[in-house]
Amino acid sequence: MAGTKVKDQFKELISPFLRFKMEEAKNNFGEKSKEYLAIAKQYIENPLERNIEASLEKSRHYQSGIKAYYDNKPLRGLERLYKRTILLEPTTVCAAHCRWCVRGQYPVETMTKEDISNATKYMGSDERKKDLKEVLITGGDPLMSLPLLSYTLQEIKKNAPNIEIVRVASRVPFHDPERINNAMLEVFSEYNNFRFELGTHINHPVEFWEESVESIKKLQSVGFRIYNQNPLLKGVNDDFETLSELYSKLRDYDIESHYLFHAVPLRGMKHHRTSVKKGIDLSNALSSCGEFSGRAKAKYCILSDIGKIIVYQDTIVDRRKKDNSILLKSGFNIENRLKWNPSWQKPDSVELDENGTMYVWYLDGSDEQVEDIKKETSLSAQF
To answer: What value does the mean pLDDT of the chain take?
Structure first.
């Protein structure tokens, strides 16, 4: 979900738990197996990440930061694109770095207590409390620091009573599941005034490790509703069989299949990205296959410069062959966007119709095969 750059490169970081699972998959299934590569391609740095070609590749998936002051001090760690939801980033630290991360090139930052207090007072201010009902606590991974998370919940409860739903974005159950311990569960149990939801990324059926499933059950035991939003990743889950099994397993563990994301055109991500059409074809096949419950079918979604756009029949309205871009029709109105976030600036990729509806250009991917990871890895030596 977030990480850091070292000399303009996203640092490789693999948790001990993931290293063990990767080594286990390699020993049990082989280094060229789907089971091993499904994990390795998500976490091992690939030299292809340094191939930055397209002009529309960028370092941030969108610009949504709130540029405002509270008590004469600049607000930090707040983003907003939508009417009822605001995003808060207490820390950008994670247990592991997903190579496809949309926040992987953000700087390393952790909010101070004063930052968090001012942010929550902003959420609960008279101008915002009518519309704002949800906060998405993300980062980074908010479950990496229990004291910071506990303080954040305390301040939301005290300063923003309009917030009813607290969503936590985390892969800790799949990166470092031991962190989901009694102390953490007690913190969440203390704030039973909130409806808690956890958004995660389970991208392949192999990731339903016993320890991870147990950590999910612990969170569910204190009232969490869990939802999944997985990116479509080339060579990891870009086939019908893998996604069908994934969504069936999500249903087994009472995890909502929320979004199937097209991989975002960030710098160094080209080798992860399929074409948008491949995602459409897979989504259509999954939606009408009868292989698993209709309650487990994810919506195919593009994370554009102006926010999430669900792909329907008339969503793609034009194509620009010279740079392999498509024009997407959104339901977003620029007047509303500026009302919710007055500091938001219209990206150059956006076109407006006479009603202020936003259309946005988006860099497509490719279905060409890419080489597997060439980097030498000695996982067993790092235990």
So the answer is: 92
